[in-house]
Design goal:
TIM Barrel, 22% strand, 477 residues, single chain, binds zinc ion, alpha/beta, binds dihydropyrimidine-2,4(1H,3H)-dione, 13 helices, globular
Amino acid sequence: MRILIKNGTVVSATGRGAADVLVDGETIVAVLEPGSARLGFDLEGSVDTVIDAAGKYVIPGGIDAHTHMELPFGGTAASDTFESGTRAAAWGGTTTIIDFAVQRTGERVQDGLAAWHEKAAGNCAIDYGFHQIIGGVDENALAAMDGLIDEGVTSFKLFMAYPGVFYSDDAQILRAMQKSADTGLLTMMHAENGLAIDVLAEQLVARGKTDPYFHGIARAWQMEEEATHRAIMLAHLTGAPLYVVHVSAKQAVEQLAWARDRGQNVFGETCPQYLYLSLEEQLGASSENWGRFEGAKWVCSTPLRSRAEGHQDSMWQALRTNDLQMVSTDHCPFCMKDQKELGLGDFRKIPNGIGSIEHRMDLMYQGVVTGELTLERWVELTSTTPARMFGLYGTKGVIQPGADADLVVYDPNGHTSIGIEKTHHMNMDYSAWEGFEIDGHVDTVLSRGKVVVDGNQYLGAKGDGRYLKRGLSQYLV
Ligand code: DUC
Ligand code: ZN
Ligand code: ZN
């Protein structure tokens, strides 16, 4: 199948220009000056499908490098399967995900990874890779980490939060980071001081402060700043490259900037919820249905932060200045019924997570509309840097001959209304983004040369997506 996308403005991380994109099979074979006449033959007549992108942007498909499909967590499991979650991703212009395989204390890393392959294989609408959560750093886990690179899993995540679940103490972190420095595996860190947070949470509940809002009070920004600093110092000592996930506190960004200015290989992502939503709105959230519990829909960790304290502005700024390099979703959806409701009367029991995989490209494009980001930076944050950071660049994250034909035709004159009855395809009974209006629209999505979304039609299929063996990070200094 040969496809020509003509008349569009091709946008990359470094510029934009009028160009036609020729796809043959699964691959981009040419990026051409607009108009085929000068080639001396009828290019349009030689292809099976012509997509007219006049007035629209043609961008590399989005890469969401932080998702949790089917994650068993908080007494339940994330409500999107690989099938439903990757379909929703495709609807929203994301053509690659990197999900987190899980190993817990006492389990074999190989078994955790195999279980994730089992969940995903044959079910995904788009291509997918894995990071490895190491929830129990012991001799066996450390030895098994040597084998991850051969499996195409070139990054692992540790948690300084969630004692008794995924938590690693400093000794475990040190050992795992030594392995990271030896092998080139990228250390990803959930940087919050979980031991102190659990004490604060217990004290709040004992005083009757049980509403969802208090989740954010217990997980104070000092807990994120301190853990981020500690992770940076351990990374400095060991020489491990460090990537801090879901950064939400401005003080944590300051730590990252400080480390980067010293020349350390330290990176960070934020997520749409830390750019748009706030603790104040969570306090105000109430409805007839859910009473004071509605704020549960925004319970995630790290938590939403105070707008009055300037955290959201600081995230946008850091995205501009490259103190933060990427935007992922941390897609970890739960329904309100039977899932978030587990925490009625005790915020500690609310499963932590927000579903956003379908809306990341749109929400970040709105940052272009409002002047927070340039068009090029939008592409860089959502596709090109994720590809480079996680060893996919060249095949993914770029429009050039030889790259996979993962392409999105984005209409800046279109409009997207977000909500459970509107654009929502995620397996959730509410939307954390209800009522958000976007001045743009994902029109057409190609995944490895197959048109999977065409306007309001879904043409993809379960099993279209392939496992991606990733290389080492291409972003290190
Ligand atoms: N944070 C969340 O909100 N959900 C899943 C795990 C995490 O760290
Ligand atoms: Zn996390
Ligand atoms: Zn996560």
